User: Fold this.
Amino acid sequence: MTNLTRRQILLGGGALAASGLIPAIPRTPLTPQMRLMSNALAADIPRPDYMIRLSSNENPYGPSRVALKAIHANLHLLNRYSRDVQPVVEVLADINGVSADNVVVGTGSSEILRVAGMIAASNNGSVVCADPTYQSLLDYAERHGAEIIRVPVNESLNSDLEAMRAAVRSDTDMIYLVNPNNPIPSVLNKDAMRNFVLEMSKEHLVFVDEAYHEFVDDPDYESMMGLVAAGHKNIIVARTASKIHGLAGMRIGFGFAHPELAEKMRDMKTGETHVLAVEAAHASYLDPEFPKFVIRKNKESLAIVENMCEELGLRYIKSNANFTFIQTGMENAKYQERMREYGILTGRDFPPYHSSWSRISMSKPEEMEYYVQIHKRLFG
Ligand SMILES: Cc1ncc(COP(=O)(O)O)c(C=O)c1O
Assistant:
């Protein structure tokens, strides 16, 4: 087996890839049929020779070099069952101004969502949420006996806090808010949000999913982490290393809650954090450079797509995340199918918006340029 040199370790991802220890970014190749099709229909448009993933809100740059180095340096730990999560807990607590006993480490934030879904379902009551929104917690709670009360977003396609307040019933155990929302990347006004969370959390559990927090630069937005730091009891905030840190495949995310609730959540977890996920996240959260780079590139990509929407007069939702939501005016299934013919994967159906809207995740600017050219060629 090839030995990993100190120089390779210090140089990080690039050198590791060159050494053959990490395969150089494996991508999904185009099928011969797709290649023929895109050559015939858009031979003049230079295109990458792989599937472009605008479908899953992933980070096209991650993991960072720093994270890759940490993964490599710790490969020898793979014979161990587990790794102490305390160092990463402390880093997360520090960054977010809470204490270590507020932090729960999950196998992705999905585990935090499912544990919360289980808590919400334990009385067979109800969960109030916006519609559309991210489904994981809701599906899990529903499978375990909760009724889901879906409150349609308002005319500007933002979560409707007034209508959600009115939808809360005496059997409501949880209110689930995603901010920025997904698939619609809008944010809630910070004062309205804080008042709503404070009021609701007097009698109900409030779960605030902030998976895209790091991408937001709207001054109208505020994280609800401060309420956890201030000691409020019925509030859970979730964050993830999957998005800005590009560690989706590592499955590591975080819940933040009052120490008593955090303890209860730890007790209910079934997953164990992978030893390399602990190391990768620890290194990545200590590095301020990679997130800055990703935010800058994400803005470039968003601008390319938003310019197209302006030019073609398409309605879109100003994004506070790494994806946007566009009114293409056609069935999403049809849009997906046409884009796929050109090697582009776009977002799945998000009922009831699937009849004319599509979610487009951001990839690298050059890939978004290609997407725009294809969209214009097909529908412009
Ligand atoms: C709003 C929201 N919450 C949670 C998740 C799950 O993230 P994780 O990879 O941490 O499980 C996603 C993933 O797309 C998401 O969009």
